[in-house]
C-alpha cells in the first residue's frame, strides 16, 4: 500500500472512532425510546420489538407538552431579550470608547464563571417574595443574566471583525450614523447575531438547575426538569421508555440546529472563549 | 491595551482618534473631561446608554441575590421553622465547615473536577488534532463531534443512567452479574466522571482546535526540516505555542466542572456519598428548606470557585478566558 | 469642483499630543495634490480632517469657499478611497457603486446610467454582479474608485489606495488614477508614504514630518531644490549621498577630496555666518563614469574621485555602483533618520551610491574613477538641516 493510502486508512480509522464516540450514546437513548415497555429490561442494545408508544405516551402527557411549551417560550423570550440588550452592549464594547467598558466586561466574565447554585438559594427566596416563583419571568430573568456574558463576548468579537473603514466609507458615501449602522453594520453582523442567538438558546434550553429550583409545578417548569419528574403511569410501570423518548424529543431540535449551523457555532464557541 | 494602541499610533501613522487600532484600545488614554470634543463626549454617552440595560440586568439579577445570600448565611432561617429565625453570626459556617457531608461533597466535587478535566484535556487534544489534521471527511467529523455538546445534559445523563442500570443497560450487561455500579461509591463516581467527560470533551476539543490554528504551519515545517519527529514537533513546537489557549480552556472547564449538578442529580442524586457541593446545597434548600445553611453553602462555593480561579491564575499565569480578542 | 483651503489647521489630542501643527495649504480647483511623509507625520490625520472623519482642533477648512469644520462627512460632498478599499462585503459591485447615489435618493434610472458610466470608465462592466470577495486586489481597487467617482463629488480623497497591491499592479493603477484624474479634472488629495508614487502622480507634493509641513512644491522643485536635509533624504531613490565636510580656505574638505568653493557655495555660506562643518549632499545621478565622459568630452571640466566598487547593480537601463568609503562615519542626523524611517546607515561604514550609464565598464571589486559636477552639490547645516545652497 502506498504511504498516502496508508495514511488515508489511518485517518479513516480515527474518524470512525470519533464517530462512534459521538453517536453510540445517542443511538442508545434513541433505541431505548423505541423499545416496547415489556422488553425494555432485556438489556440488548437495539430494540427487539420496535414501538412508537413511548412517543405517543409522552405527547399524551399534559405535563410534558406543557414543559415543551415552557421551554420554547422561556428560551425564545430569554434569547431575544439577551440578544437585543447584549447586541447593544457588545457594539458599545467593540466600537466605542467610554470609561466603564472594562467593568462591563469584568462583570460579564464574573457571571460567566459564577456557580449558578449560589444564586439559586437567594433567588428562591427573593422570587417567592416578589411572586415571581414558579412563573415564566422567574426563569427568564436568570436565563437572560447567564446568557448575557456569552452574548456580549461572542458578539463583540463579531463586531470587531467588521472593519472600521466600512463605517467611515459609509459616512463618506453620505450615510447618517444610523444609516451606516442599518445598511452596513447590521447586515454584516447578522450571521454573528444568529450564531449567538443559537448559542444563547442552547444555554437556556439546557438549563436544569434553575428550572427544578425555581418552579414548583408544570406552570413554568421547562422540559428537562419535567422529565426528571416522570413516573410511570402506574406505580409498577417503569418510566424508562418515556424518559428516553422525552430525552430524544428535547435533544433533536438542538442537535439539528447544531449540525445545521456547525461552522458558525464552532467559530462562535471559540471566538469569545479562547483568544485570551 | 493602551500601550498597544499608543504604539500603533506612534509607529503606524494611524490616528488615535479614528480608532484604526480596532477601537478597543481607545479611550484608555483619554485626558481631562474639558479637553473632550463634542464627538467624544457623545460617544461616551452612547456607550453608557448602550451598555446600561445589560449591566442593569446583570447587576440586579446577581448583585442583590449575592448580598442577600451573605445576609441569609448569617441567620438561622429554616422555612419549616420560621419562628426560630434569628441572627446567629458565623454559626452556620461553623456548622457547614464541621460537617462531614460538606467535606465529603467538597472532595468528591474536586476529584470529579480534576479527573474529568484532566481526561478531557488529553482526549480533547487528541480529538482536536484529529479534527484539525484528518484527511478524510473533515467536515463530517467536525460536525458529528458537536452532537455531545448539543445534547441536553439531563437527556444524556439519563442515557448513561439506563446504560448502567442492571437489566436495562447494554453496558451493565458487560459487568459481572449482580453488580449495580450506580449504587456503589467508586463505580458511581467513575460513571459521573465518564458522562461529564463525554459531554464536554468536544467543547474542549473545539477550544484547543482554535489554539492549534494559532500554530504557524511554517514553524512545524521548519522543525521537521531540523529533524524533529511528530512527537517532538508536538511537544516542542505545538504545545508551547498553544499554552495560552490550553490554560484558558483548562480554567474555563475547571470552573464549569466545579458547578457539576445535572449529571449527578440524574445518575445518583447524591446517593452513596456521590454528592457534589451543588447537589448538597440544592438538597438543603429545596428538600431541607433550610435557607441559612443553603446560603452558607452558596457563599462557600463562590469562595471555593474564586480560590480555584485565583490559584490557577497565580500559579500558571494564565489570563482569564474570554478576554477581548485581538490582544494575543 | 472646488478648491480646498486649510488655514492654520491643527489637530491636538486630549492627551496633549499634536498630530498636525498649523497647516496652511491652498489646493487649487482640479489640482492633484499628494500628502507624503513617513509614518506618523500627520498626513492621514490631515486627510481625515478634510474628510470630516476627525474633528479639526484649530484653524479653518473651506471647500469651495464654504467653511466645513462643523459639517458631517456626508454634507461635505467629497468621496474617499480607502487603503483597505472598504467595499461593502454584502453588496455586489453594482450595489457598492450605487450606494452613494442610493443614499442621496437619486432616482433609479439616473443611478443605473451613472453606475454604468462609472463602470465603463473603470473597465469593470463584466464584474458588476460579483461580490467583493470574488474580486482580485486590482479589481477591488477599481470598484472603490467607481464608488468614489459615481456621484461626481467636489473632491476625491485617497488614503494610500495602492499600498495593498503588488508592485506591478501598483504601477498600472498609478497610471490609471493619473489618467482618470486628468479626465475628470476633480480636485484630488492623495496620501501615500511612497515617494515614488508622490513624484509620479502629483501636480504638487506636500511633504510632512512630525505634523509639520517641510516643503510644498512640484515634484521637480522638491527633487532639485530641497529645503532641508529631510526633504533631500526623503525624495529620490536611491537616496542622496550625505557626507560630512569641513570648510577651509582652500575649499570643502571631505572624503571625495577637496572641492574648491564655487561662488554659489561661498555666497550660501556667507549668508549663514560661515559655519565650519556642513553636510554635503550629492545625488547618485550627479556622478558619471569618468572614462565615458572623457570619451565624449575630452576636456573634462568636472571634478573626479576614485573609489573601490563594492557592489555593482545592473538594472539594464542604468547601473548603480556602491563604493565603500574608508575612514569616514555616516552622517548622524535625526533629520535623516526620519527621512529613512529608521533605516540608518551603519555608523562605521559608509557607501557612496553612484548612478552610471549602462555603457560603463565598471566592475565589482575594481576601482572606478567617478566624475561629478560641483554645481550638483547641496550643503546642509548639520543642526537645523537647512539647505544652505537653496536658501540664499
TrEMBL record, chain A:
Residues 68-261 form the ABC transmembrane type-1 domain. Pfam families: BPD_transp_1. It comes from the Bacteria. It is a multi-pass membrane protein. Its main location: membrane. The keyword Methyltransferase does not apply. It is found in: Cell membrane. Belongs to the binding-protein-dependent transport system permease family. This is Carbohydrate ABC transporter permease. It comes from Actinomadura yumaensis.
TrEMBL record, chain B:
Coiled coil: none annotated. Residues 1-13 have a biased composition (Low complexity). Residues 14-30 have a biased composition (Gly residues). Its main location: membrane. InterPro entries: MetI-like, MetI-like_sf, Sugar_ABC_transporter. Residues 106-312 form the ABC transmembrane type-1 domain. The keyword Iron-sulfur does not apply. Signal peptide: none annotated. It is found in: Cell membrane; Membrane. Residues 1-38 are annotated as: Disordered. It holds the Pfam family BPD_transp_1. It is a multi-pass membrane protein. Keywords: Membrane, Transmembrane, Transmembrane helix, Transport. The chain crosses the membrane at residues 46-71, 105-132, 139-160, 291-313. Belongs to the binding-protein-dependent transport system permease family. This is Carbohydrate ABC transporter permease. It comes from Actinomadura yumaensis. The lineage of its organism: Bacteria, Bacillati, Actinomycetota, Actinomycetes, Streptosporangiales.
TrEMBL record, chain C:
InterPro entries: AAA+_ATPase (IPR003593), ABC_transporter-like_ATP-bd (IPR003439), ABC_transporter-like_CS (IPR017871), ABC_transpr_MalK-like (IPR015855), ABC_transpr_MalK/UgpC-like (IPR047641), Mo/tungstate-bd_C_term_dom (IPR008995), NA-bd_OB-fold (IPR012340), OB_MalK-like (IPR040582). SUPFAM superfamilies: MOP-like, P-loop containing nucleoside triphosphate hydrolases. Residues 4-235 form the ABC transporter domain. GO terms for molecular function: ATP binding. PROSITE patterns: ABC_TRANSPORTER_1, ABC_TRANSPORTER_2. Pfam families: ABC_tran, OB_MalK. Gene3D superfamilies: 2.40.50.100, Nucleic acid-binding proteins, P-loop containing nucleotide triphosphate hydrolases. Keywords: ATP-binding, Cell membrane, Membrane, Nucleotide-binding, Translocase, Transport. This is ABC transporter ATP-binding protein.
Amino acid at each position: 500500500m502506498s504511504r498516502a493510502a496508508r495514511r488515508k486508512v489511518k485517518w479513516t480509522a480515527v474518524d470512525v472512532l470519533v464517530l462512534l464516540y459521538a453517536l453510540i450514546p445517542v443511538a442508545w437513548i434513541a433505541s431505548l425510546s423505541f423499545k416496547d415497555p415489556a422488553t425494555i429490561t432485556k438489556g440488548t442494545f437495539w430494540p427487539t420489538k420496535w414501538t412508537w408508544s413511548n412517543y405517543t405516551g409522552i405527547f399524551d402527557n399534559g405535563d410534558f407538552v406543557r414543559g415543551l411549551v415552557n421551554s420554547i417560550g422561556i428560551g425564545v423570550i430569554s434569547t431575544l431579550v439577551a440578544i437585543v440588550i447584549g447586541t447593544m452592549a457588545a457594539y458599545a464594547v467593540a466600537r466605542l470608547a467610554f470609561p466603564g467598558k472594562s467593568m462591563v466586561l469584568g462583570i460579564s466574565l464574573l457571571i460567566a464563571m459564577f456557580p449558578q447554585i449560589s444564586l439559586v438559594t437567594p433567588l428562591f427566596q427573593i422570587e417567592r417574595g416578589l411572586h415571581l416563583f414558579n412563573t415564566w419571568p422567574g426563569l427568564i430573568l436568570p436565563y437572560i443574566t447567564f446568557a448575557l456574558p456569552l452574548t456580549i463576548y461572542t458578539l463583540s468579537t463579531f463586531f470587531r471583525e467588521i472593519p472600521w473603514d466600512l463605517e467611515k466609507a459609509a459616512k463618506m458615501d453620505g450615510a447618517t450614523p444610523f444609516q451606516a449602522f442599518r445598511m452596513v453594520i447590521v447586515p454584516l453582523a447578522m450571521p454573528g447575531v444568529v450564531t449567538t442567538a443559537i448559542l444563547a438558546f442552547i444555554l437556556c434550553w439546557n438549563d436544569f438547575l434553575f428550572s427544578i429550583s425555581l418552579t414548583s409545578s408544570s406552570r413554568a417548569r421547562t422540559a428537562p426538569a419535567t422529565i426528571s419528574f416522570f413516573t410511570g403511569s402506574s406505580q409498577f410501570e417503569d418510566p424508562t421508555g418515556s424518559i428516553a423518548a422525552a430525552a430524544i424529543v428535547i435533544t433533536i431540535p438542538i442537535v439539528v440546529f447544531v449540525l445545521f449551523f456547525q461552522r458558525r457555532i464552532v467559530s462562535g464557541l471559540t471566538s469569545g472563549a479562547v483568544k485570551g | 491595551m493602551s500601550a498597544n494602541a499608543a504604539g500603533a499610533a506612534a509607529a503606524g501613522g494611524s490616528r488615535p482618534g479614528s480608532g484604526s487600532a480596532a477601537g478597543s484600545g481607545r479611550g484608555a488614554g483619554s485626558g481631562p473631561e474639558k479637553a473632550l470634543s463634542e464627538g467624544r463626549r457623545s460617544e461616551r454617552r452612547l456607550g453608557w446608554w448602550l451598555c446600561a440595560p445589560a449591566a442593569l440586568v446583570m447587576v440586579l439579577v446577581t448583585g442583590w441575590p449575592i448580598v442577600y445570600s451573605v445576609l441569609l448565611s448569617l441567620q438561622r432561617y429554616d422555612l419549616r421553622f420560621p419562628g426560630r429565625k434569628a441572627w446567629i453570626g458565623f454559626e452556620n459556617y461553623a456548622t457547614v465547615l464541621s460537617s462531614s457531608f460538606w467535606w465529603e461533597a467538597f472532595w468528591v466535587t474536586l476529584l470529579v473536577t480534576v479527573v474529568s478535566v484532566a481526561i478531557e484535556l488529553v482526549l480533547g487534544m487528541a480529538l482536536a488534532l484529529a479534527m484539525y489534521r484528518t484527511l478524510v471527511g473533515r467536515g463530517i467529523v467536525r460536525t458529528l463531534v458537536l452532537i455531545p455538546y448539543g445534547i441536553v445534559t439531563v437527556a444524556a445523563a439519563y442515557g448513561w443512567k439506563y446504560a448502567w442500570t442492571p437489566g436495562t443497560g447494554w453496558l451493565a450487561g458487560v459487568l459481572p452479574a449482580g453488580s449495580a455500579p450506580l449504587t456503589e461509591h467508586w463505580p458511581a463516581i467513575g460513571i459521573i466522571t465518564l458522562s461529564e467527560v463525554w459531554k464536554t470533551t468536544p467543547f474542549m476539543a473545539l477550544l484547543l482546535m482554535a489554539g492549534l490554528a494559532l500554530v504557524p504551519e511554517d514553524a512545524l515545517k521548519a522543525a521537521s526540516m531540523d529533524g524533529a519527529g511528530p512527537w517532538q514537533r508536538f511537544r516542542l513546537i505545538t504545545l508551547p505555542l498553544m499554552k495560552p489557549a490550553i490554560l484558558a480552556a483548562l480554567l474555563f472547564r475547571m470552573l464549569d466542572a466545579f458547578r457539576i449538578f445535572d449529571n449527578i442529580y440524574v445518575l445518583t442524586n447524591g446517593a452513596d456519598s456521590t454528592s457534589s457541593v451543588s447537589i448538597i446545597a440544592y438538597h438543603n434548600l429545596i428538600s431541607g428548606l433550610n435557607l441559612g445553611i443553603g446560603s452558607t453553602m452558596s457563599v462557600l462555593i463562590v469562595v471555593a470557585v474564586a480560590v480555584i480561579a485565583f490559584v490557577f491564575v497565580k500559579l500558571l499565569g494564565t489570563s482569564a478566558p474570554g478576554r477581548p480578542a485581538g490582544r494575543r | 469642483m472646488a478648491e480646498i483651503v486649510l488655514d492654520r489647521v491643527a489637530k491636538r489630542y486630549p492627551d496633549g499630543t499634536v498630530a498636525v501643527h498649523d497647516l496652511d495649504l491652498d489646493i487649487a480647483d482640479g489640482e492633484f495634490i499628494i500628502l507624503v511623509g513617513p509614518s506618523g507625520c500627520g498626513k492621514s490625520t490631515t486627510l481625515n480632517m478634510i474628510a470630516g472623519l476627525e474633528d479639526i482642533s484649530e484653524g479653518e477648512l473651506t471647500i469651495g469657499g464654504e467653511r466645513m469644520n462643523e459639517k458631517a462627512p456626508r454634507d461635505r460632498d467629497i468621496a474617499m478611497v480607502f487603503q483597505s478599499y472598504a467595499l461593502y462585503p454584502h453588496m455586489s459591485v453594482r450595489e457598492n457603486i450605487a450606494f452613494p447615489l442610493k443614499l442621496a435618493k437619486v432616482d433609479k434610472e439616473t443611478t443605473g446610467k451613472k453606475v454604468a458610466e462609472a463602470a465603463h470608465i473603470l473597465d469593470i462592466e463584466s464584474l458588476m454582479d460579483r461580490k467583493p470577495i470574488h474580486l482580485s486586489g486590482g479589481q477591488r481597487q477599481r470598484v472603490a474608485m467607481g464608488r468614489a467617482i459615481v456621484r461626481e463629488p467636489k473632491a476625491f480623497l485617497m488614503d494610500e489606495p495602492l499600498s495593498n497591491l503588488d508592485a506591478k499592479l501598483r504601477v498600472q493603477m498609478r497610471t490609471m488614477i493619473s489618467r482618470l484624474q486628468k479626465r475628470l479634472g476633480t480636485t484630488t488629495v492623495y496620501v501615500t508614504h511612497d515617494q515614488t508614487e508622490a513624484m509620479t502622480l502629483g501636480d504638487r507634493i506636500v511633504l510632512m514630518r512630525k505634523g509639520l509641513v517641510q516643503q510644498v512644491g512640484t515634484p521637480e522643485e522638491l527633487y532639485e531644490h530641497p529645503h532641508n536635509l529631510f526633504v533631500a533624504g526623503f525624495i529620490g531613490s536611491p537616496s542622496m549621498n550625505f557626507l560630512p565636510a569641513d570648510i577651509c580656505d582652500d575649499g570643502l574638505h571631505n572624503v571625495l577630496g577637496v572641492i574648491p568653493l564655487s561662488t554659489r557655495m561661498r555666497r550660501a555660506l556667507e549668508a549663514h555666518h560661515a559655519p565650519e562643518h556642513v553636510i554635503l549632499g550629492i545625488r547618485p545621478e550627479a556622478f558619471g563614469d569618468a572614462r565615458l565622459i572623457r570619451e565624449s568630452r575630452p576636456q573634462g571640466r568636472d571634478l573626479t574621485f576614485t573609489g573601490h566598487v563594492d557592489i555593482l547593480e545592473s538594472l539594464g537601463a542604468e547601473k548603480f555602483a556602491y563604493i565603500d568609503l574608508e575612514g569616514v562615519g555616516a552622517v548622524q542626523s535625526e533629520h535623516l533618520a526620519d527621512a529613512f524611517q529608521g533605516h540608518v546607515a551603519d555608523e562605521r561604514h559608509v557607501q557612496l551610491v553612484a548612478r552610471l550609464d549602462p555603457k560603463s565598464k565598471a566592475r565589482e571589486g575594481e576601482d572606478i574613477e567617478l566624475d561629478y559636477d560641483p554645481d550638483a552639490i547641496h550643503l546642509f547645516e548639520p543642526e537645523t538641516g537647512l539647505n544652505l545652497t537653496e536658501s540664499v
